[in-house]
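quick one, 217 residues, struct below
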Amino acid sequence: MTSRRAVMAVLASSTFALASCQTAPPPMVRPAAFTALGVSAPYLSGDVIGGHRPRAAKMRAAKIRPLPPAMASAYMAKLDRELRQQTAGIGLDVLNLGSSIVVRVPATFTFDTGSASVKPQTDATLLEIARTVKTMNQTYVDVLAHTDTTGSPQGNLALSEKRAAAVATYLAGHGVAKSRIASHGFGESAPLYVPDDTEMRRAGNRRIEIRLVPFFG
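---
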C-alpha cells in the first residue's frame, strides 16, 4: 500500500511538472542593443583637424601636459563616464570609438533652421559638455558640423563651417582652452541617412559632433 502511494505521488508530481512546462510563459526576448550610425566613417577615424603635429605644438605652448600612453585607456574611460553622467537625459549620443569619444548633438538642439547662431535656450546642453571637456584637458577637441541635403551643396558647406565655428567659440568661451580646439564643416558630405527623404532622416543628418582624441604630445 505504501509502495502504491509512493508511485501515485511520483506520477502526480510528474504530471504537475509537465503541466507547468507546458503552461510556462516563453522567455523574454531582450531588445537589440542600440547601434549608432556612422561610427565607421573615415572622418571619425582619421587624423585630428589640421594634423597632430601643429595641434600638439599649440597644446604644448599652452602648457597642457601630454597624456602618457599607458594611462590613455583609463583616462578615456573616465572621460566617457563623466560625459554620460553630465549629459544623461538630454538626448545626446556619447559614442566611445576606442581611439576617441564622439559626442553627437542634434543640430535642432543648437541652431534654428538656416542659422549659425547658438540658441540661448541650449546653453545648458553645451555647458554640460564644456564642464567635463574643460576639466579633462588632455584631449584634442574637434568640432564637426553636418547638414542635410536641403539647399545647395555650397550653401550647406558654408553653413556647416559657420556652425562648427560657433560651437568651437562657445566651448572656448566656457573654459575649454582654445589651443585644444579646431572646427570643420562637412556640409552634406557625411550623412547618417542616405537618402534623407523624410524629415526624420534629414533631422538625423543635421548634427554637431564633438570629437575628443587623446593628446600624446
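The first helix runs from residue 2 to 23.
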